Amino acid sequence: MGTHATTIKKEKFLADLATTGNISQSCRDLGLSRNSVKFWLKRDRTFQTGYDLAQEEAVERMEQEARRRGVDGSLEPVYFAGHAVGAIRKYSDVLLIFLLKASKPEKYRDFYYDSGGQIPHATREELLTSIHGKLARLATRTGTLPALPEPERSGTGGGAA
Q1: CB contact at 8 A, 23 and 17
Q2: Contacts with 147 (C-beta within 8 Å, 6 or more apart), sequence order
Q3: Kindly report the CA angle at 124 between 153 and 129, in degrees rounded to 5?
Q4: Is the pTM of the predicted complex or chain greater than 0.85?
């Protein structure tokens, strides 16, 4: 279970982690070693749960900040002749893109598989067929096509799948 002092250290670490989102930074802030945190994670289920919640809260803080910068923007000073003469609001399109990709991957991600969380499995034949199709489209644009082995057809010789 641990001493009262250890319990207080754990609570302070988790509160700091929820703010920083960085284990090393939280350890430095509180004068703890990473090994202590690793030990607590292995031995203390309550600490494990608190750790997971703190990490989740830190991510939510980052998402909130990303949204603020993307939607509300931030003011940056404008200088003329070495003096601040005003400010301009700057927005982060990149942060908005990341938020959209995370929120609606089926619509905004560059590469999306709806496979129930599983990476789709493809046979060697399917992969080679896909590669050949892509290379053929490339050859149409560039006029050249590198040589690759032909895809194996079911029932023909070849190695084990």
Answers
A1: yes
A2: none
A3: 65
A4: no
Query: Buried b / exposed e across 35-65, counting CB within 10 Å, b at 16+?
Result: eebeebeeebeebeebbeebeebbeeeeeee
24: buried, middle or exposed (CB in 10 Å: 19+, 13-18, 0-12)?
A: exposed
CB atoms within 10 A of CB 14: 21
DSSP code for 71: I
Q: Hey, where are the domains in the chain?
A: 4-62, 73-107, 121-151
pLDDT higher than threshold 70 for residue 120? no
What is the total residue count of the chain? 161
- Going 97 to 100 to 102 to 104, the CA torsion angle's sign is negative
> Strand pairing of 83-90 and 74-80?
antiparallel
pLDDT tens string 51-105:
999 999 999 999 999 999 999 999 999 999 999 999 999 999 999 998 988 888 8
Bridge partners (DSSP) listed for residue 74: 90
